Amino acid sequence: MPDLNGAVTEQDQQRVWAALDKFRIEIPSWGFANTGTRFGKFSQPAAASTIEEKFADAAQVNALTGVSSTMALHVLWDLPSGKSDIPKIQQLERTYGIRSGSINPNLFQDQEYKYGSICNPSAEIRGNALSHLLDSVEIGRALNSRDVSMWVSDGSNYPGTQSIRRRIEYMEEVLAATHAALGPDQRMLVEYKPFEPAFYHTDIADWGMALELARRAGPKAKVLVDTGHHLQGTNIEQIVAWLLHLNALGGFHFNDRKFADDDLTLGSIDPYQVFRIFHEILSDTTTNFNDIAFMIDQSHNLKGKVEAMVQTVATAQELYAKAALVDHAKLAELQKSCSLVEAEETFREAFWTDVRPIVRAWRQSHNLPANPLTALAESGYVEKISQERSAKNAASVSSYA
Ligand code: PSV
Ligand code: MN
Ligand code: MN
Questions:
Q1: Which one in 125, 263, 338, 401 has a CA-CA gap of 20 to 30 Å to 69?
Q2: Predicted ipTM > 0.95
Q3: In what residue span(s) does the Xylose isomerase-like TIM barrel domain sit (predicted)?
Q4: Atom of ligand 1 nearest to the CA of 196
Q5: How many CB atoms lie within 10 A of CB 114?
Q6: Which fold has domain 22-326?
């Protein structure tokens, strides 16, 4: 633990180093594409518009950070032809040295999902949603990806318009059938969100619903915590502590928020919260660390996309390193004796310690740039892709004219 002058001992450094050695975080393919708000999109010349370009950008982020060698795929956006796109993805994995990460089925864009997907009152539509989920499981298996991340946007906008209870039953049925199709090394992660796009009731609105649905689906189903999917004031680290206690934490979608599901870059608004979440994980001795998938789920609609992704990965490492500084034995003693100020100061001391020199040294020892953002700027990568992609996009627009 750093002393009161913020000096970091050799032992502290080793602890942080060991934590950094294990830390990996997955990047989302959609973070490189032009995305926006429901009011519109400001397109960026460097944005990726093909799956090849997303793989290229992911490879660039990984080359600079060394800790992001998997990319989450959204089935509809990245494999628009479904299973027949598998060989193409495999080829891209080989070309760019990036592996497919979690597979995200899309249960929210098809016109037939107007009144829901797996909770739709129509058996036919639920059947279509299930067959998309089964395809997603197959895609995951073929790509050696462990997790199928399920976000169910279903819900309703007005009281009395849907049977909340009937919809629970519909969901249970589909989730059980999806779980039954999972291979031995596959998992199903159930994500929750309190509202949006539905504004009266959302079928999986909080971690309790996600947990119960996961439990009923089967042992390979776990809960996915998206940090932006909570109502104001929710104590997310407490939810994390509970899920760890129940062996039900499957992973995270990291992002930050000020108001709702803002998808801002991790730690940009409240870095202390990310630290507190990491502390819960690092202070848990019973969970297998590899069972927790750390994933980014952000939409960079104003910031440069590759820059924002590198910035996020670097921030995640720094906050993780800070959490690794906490002296658990000392904190446990102080908690036991209810030494409130001392306990809080022990916790805060780690948060306020500047770990960036240690993280930089760790990167250099792994032949990585000490400052990946500066290295990105010096590499000229963003300028290069901006030129190539804007020329290509202009050509494809004129060819449609
Ligand atoms: C929904 O808000 C969400 O968090 C889900 O994880 C989606 O898959 C992702 O955003 C991308 O739209
Ligand atoms: Mn998410
Ligand atoms: Mn979200």
A1: 263
A2: yes
A3: 79-279
A4: 2
A5: 9
A6: TIM Barrel (3.20.20)
